[in-house]
Amino acid sequence: xESNRAGLLVFLLIxxxxxxxxxxxxxxQAFQEFLKAQKWRRSVxxxxxxxxxxxxxxxxQNPVLPPDIERKALDLWDSQIPDDDDxxxxxxxxxxxxxxxxxxxxxxxxxxxxxxxxxxxxxxxEQANQTNGIMWxxxxxxxxxxDSEGIMSLDISEKGYGPVQMIEASLNIQDExxxxxxxxxxRGLHFVKTGNIVMxxxxxxxxxxxxxxxxxxxxxxxxxxxxxxxxxxxxxxxEFDAMYRRDMNPPYSGPSGSPENCEYxxxxxxxxxxxxxxxxxxxxxxxRFPQGQPHKSIPKVVLSLLIYSPNCGTVIESQxxxxxxxxxxxxxxxxxxxxxxxxxxxxxxxLIRQMNDTNTPSTVSRLSFWTVGxxxxxxxxxxxxxxxxxxxxxxxxxxxxxxxxxxxxxVSVFGMRYLILIYRIQRPERRTNPVPxxxxxxPAATVNADTLPLPAVATPQTAQANIGTMPTNGNTTNQAxxxxxxxxxxxxxxxxFILLGLIFASLNASTWPKPYRTVFxxxxxxxxxxxxIPQIYRNVMRGCRRAFNWEFVIGMSVLRLVPMLYLYLFKxxxxxxxxxxxxxxxxxxxxxxQIVILVSQEVxxxxxFVPGSYLPxxxxxxxxxxxxDIESSGDTSEGEGIAVNSRGGLSLLGPTDCTICMQTIELPxxxxxxxxxxxxxxxxSLGPGAILARRAYMVTPCRxxxxxxxxxxxxxxxxxxxxxRSSLPPL
Length: 731
Prior knowledge:
The protein has helices at 2-18, 25-46, 67-78, 117-120, 126-132, 212-215, 219-245, 277-288, 326-357, 361-364, 369-392, 397-425, 463-466, 485-509, 514-528, 533-542, 550-569, 581-603, 630-633, 688-694, 708-715, and strands at 98-106, 149-158, 164-175, 181-191, 196-200, 265-270, 301-309, 314-325, 625-626, 642-644, 650-652, 697-699, 705-707. It is α+β, with helices and mostly antiparallel strands. The chain folds into three domains: 24-312, no CATH class; 331-430 and 452-475 and 482-605, no CATH class; 619-715, no CATH class. The protein has an eight-stranded antiparallel beta barrel. A three-stranded mixed β-sheet has the order 9-11-10, with no helix packed on it. Strands 12-13 form a two-stranded antiparallel sheet. Helix 9 (326-357) runs parallel beside helix 12, helix 11 (369-392) crosses helix 14 (485-509) and helix 12 (397-425) crosses helix 14. The protein starts with a helix and ends in a 16-residue tail after the last helix.
């Protein structure tokens, strides 16, 4: 262990030494050139007028837009203005910070890329190149958006107050199948009164942000946006300049983008709300500064959008992007976290009750280690997700940290404790070459009606094997020195290794194209919701009818299906997962199918769906009994108890009392069915009534009969016959 830690420390030191200094001279030089270019662009903007146009700004020509694009942009901006031109009556959000999603389609305006003036004339003046100190090549884009339609999402962040506000946005454009995607960072201006927004990309070849007043299309908007834009640019450049003077790490090494990237100009129009302007103001004020005052229902944010790429000749339109204000979105996320906390608390309660119910080696030996392990893995995965959301999203820190803490309790305090208990109790089953105990040789006995042999399905077992105290690796010495620390270390290391592998696989899959990502996601959901399969398998192999309480089985299944159904059925979920009702039905049906199998194993037989020839033998505590005709057959011994008749079946000799509760065992006069000598299960030949009647009693290998609930309660604590103290096979 110490050598492993030393190796890890050396590896971390090597990584630290080889990591380049973020303040290297080359990076500082690039940052200096970036500042120089930004200051030069600012000076060009300060000396420009709307009539002169964007003179000397990289990538911006005069006129700034082709006539068709300019006309469509103006029509978009005028679409929400009333006929009486009364803009004061337009009910709109003043701050549209939020998340919007919608569909888009590509437009064909009748001209190709080579006919666009801005894609044909990417030339920079010699004076501008000398002033910037950086030479940029003309664009030859090879990554244009070639799809005709798809899905679009827009994340807008807006700060400040006033008639014109600066905004930052992230635009994601994907094709219909999700094979191709484009992430576009944008900066722009929001004209609050009319809901007009213009945004653009900025790169080393395209001074989009500095050309925003010219992209506002009219002189009136140019005059409104000139001062707010210069103020924001001055603050940004002064901040970068101060960082450079203090020799601090710059936020980035220089101008972003490459000559192969498309540049974009985006025009957005905010749709008017259906509620009155004064009510809209109350709603927005309550969202941003909650005071508890009553208000109208919160309307959605609805946008229309037009995207134009001057160097790639691409025109994209979206008629409707719908989303929520960021305050509303965080409120929904907090509500989802609160529901998650309630679900986690209920799971903790169910797990505690299950742990209290299975508190003996006999009951723990029935449980499947992998069933509990799969549940713990999912809980650990959710815990990491909640914790990440709490750390990176300040607005939802408290609710997500609460559910993260409860998930941590569920997986680390209760789940892992239960796993360790199951692992220790079932440890003898995993011995590869155990040395069997020396059998005690008994004198031969004559087989007659009074000394009956064990049934063929009764497998000889020792009490030592049943309670889980078999020595390790054949060592018959006392294991009192084994305190279980090795088991704890082994389980924790394997658990967290698998958990980290699952997290890394999910993060990697999130970058795949949508079809592959969807397949991975659906397969993962089916896999993690197969937690009852290991228990079904263990019931078959051990011949156990029931291991977990039914309240635990039903409760855990329902509670774990709720988050999945929320993602698959609710279109407005907080992670923007697409609604897929078919897969919701498939996964829910798969979980309930597993529960039906568990119920059938208890009611019918643990192996009712598997041929007996493919399985190891196990003892059946509910064999078929017959009531013999003593006068006519003469093939059974007289008295009370169970005997083997001449046909190989078990016969009830007379009235029998349960030695546990001292009450008479009431049985039907005749139960149709015979258990053959080879040990084959005869339950398939019985009707439903006879199968249920057999559940009323239990017969031990030593031929003693008890009430089912009496013997099951006894065997929870001791795997010995209450009458003769013989070892009993586990249930």
